[in-house]
Design a protein that fits this description.
Elements: E1 4-9, H1 15-28, E2 33-39, E3 44-47, H2 53-56, H3 59-64, E4 68-71, E5 79-81, E6 85-93, H4 99-112, E7 118-120, E8 124-127, E9 130-140, E10 143-151, H5 157-162, H6 167-173, H7 178-181, H8 194-209, E11 214-216, H9 223-234, H10 236-240, E12 248-254, E13 257-266, E14 269-277, H11 282-292, H12 299-306, H13 314-327
Parallel strand pairs: 1-2, 1-11, 3-4
Antiparallel strand pairs: 2-6, 3-5, 6-10, 7-8, 8-9, 9-10, 12-13, 13-14
Amino acid sequence: MIEKITYIESSQTDPRKNLAVEEQLLLTCGADECILYLWQNRHTVVIGRNQNAWKECLVDRLKEDGGYLVRRPSGGGAVYHDLGNLNFTFLVQKENYDLDRQLEVIIRAVKRLGIEAEKSGRNDILAGGKKFSGNAFYEQGSRCYHHGTLMADVNIGELSKYLTVSKEKLKSKGVDSVKSRVANLKEFCQDLTVAGLKEALVAAFEEVYGQKAGTRSVEELDQEELAGLEKKYSSWEWTFGRKTDFTYELSHRFPWGTVTLQLQVKGGRIEDAAAWSDCMKPQVILDLPRYLKGLYYRREAVLPQLGLFWSEDAEEEQMMKDMISWLSEVEF
């Protein structure tokens, strides 16, 4: 049960610092506490936990233009952030996690600004039939968070400049381009500002949870811990992972996301493997390579091994079944 709600806002716009703050808040969130964290990144592409940076973003162009590329711990797809976008994070203990309640904060906040919004699927919020908020989810130990974007007045032209969204994914959404399926909240409220959106979010947060929010500042957090986390999010290893000299690449789009397997095969055995995906459940994708390494590159070796996968999460179980079904029809 939530007995305490806390609001914290970041004044910095470096995405590596903001992700570090988010992780430290997760690790220090109280037993009966819900934290609302608001933050902004400047000129940034953020990729999901299991995405291939080189395939999701025009890395060199972004770097030449002075932008940032960062990887978040949660699943999902790549997004572009500028100062016309506001990010939010709800952080709680698992037993207090309530996605509908958390999304209600967002919907009531924009309604205060005169904008009618609705949930779409599991992770989008729409206004006028267009997406202005995408959401992702992450859990660690007994704690978890739900975070997302709020497009207030984003430079939409920059989306297609740096992001490389597959035609297959766009087709699955029933649209021709990224720009055609998103909208800024400013289109529905000409006087909207990021500052006004923050005020509306705090008011809606207090209204939905029925109590006054306490406040914290980034300066109150453990600065040494923050420095270590910032170093992680700044590292090449975290952002890009490792490049595999793969022999085979297999890819398929499922209703829950695209999966790409890169396999290095020598002497008929899988010596190395990498798995990439924009799905919302990162752990099942992170587990895939260890099931594949050392196996003969044959269907009769791969499928039984993947069949050993077990999870308490029914969605993850179904995802693995879907992948086994797909691989049972692939030519090895």
